[in-house]
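PROTEIN DESIGN WORKSHEET
SECTION A - STRUCTURE
LENGTH: 196
TOKENS:
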């Protein structure tokens, strides 16, 4: 707010803020990310009733709230009779404690949806150490080593939802601002499903 009010252009990437004090925003629609995860979940269930675990990112963050909103919205639009267990992490693999794994084991879900690939990968690692294999959907789908694309390719995850980072768009908009050219204030990037 202070930088923007001083006249310096500000580009906000990834996370929304609570006001319009920025030059441009770039980020994916997290409600859409959640809906896509809901579609993937629905496609993995072979019965009309199922048990689903949703592993949240940090509770107070807008991406976690919106991913949950989209996920539930999609599931409720189907004829699926589901039971949902919501567990809470903090976007890191380390937040997938033995206590969370115990909760997953007790619930015995048909599908697990994680708000990011780090947590999803750690859940897979801990469950597979117990010889338990569940379809797990992550989010982010980065193409880096150990990123979501590789995790799907090597079958660590059943699928992931691409959450575009917006880096090239940020550079383009910064160039346009500095050059005095036109640019769009709100830039919503498309998410998409990544599977085998």
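SECTION B - SEQUENCE
RESIDUE ASSIGNMENT:
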């Amino acid at each position: 707010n202070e930088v923007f009010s001083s006249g310096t252009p500000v580009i906000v990437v990834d996370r929304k803020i609570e006001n319009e004090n920025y030059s441009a925003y770039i980020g994916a629609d997290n409600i859409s990310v959640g809906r896509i995860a809901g579609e993937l979940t629905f496609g993995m269930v072979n019965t009309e009733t199922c048990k689903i675990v949703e592993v949240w990112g940090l509770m107070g963050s807008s991406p976690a709230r919106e991913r949950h909103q989209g996920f539930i919205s999609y599931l409720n639009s189907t004829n699926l009779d589901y039971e949902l267990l919501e567990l809470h992490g903090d976007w890191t693999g380390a937040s997938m404690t033995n206590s969370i794994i115990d909760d997953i084991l007790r619930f015995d879900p048909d599908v697990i949806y994680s708000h990011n690939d780090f947590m999803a990968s750690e859940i897979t690692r801990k469950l597979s150490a117990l010889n338990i294999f569940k379809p797990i959907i992550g989010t982010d789908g980065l193409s880096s080593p150990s990123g979501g694309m590789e995790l799907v390719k090597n079958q660590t995850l059943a699928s992931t939802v691409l959450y575009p980072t917006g880096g090239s768009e940020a550079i383009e908009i910064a160039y346009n601002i500095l050059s005095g050219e036109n640019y769009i204030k709100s830039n919503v990037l498309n998410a998409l499903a990544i599977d085998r």
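SECTION C - NOTES
The longest helix spans residues 30-44.
The chain has a mean pLDDT of 95.
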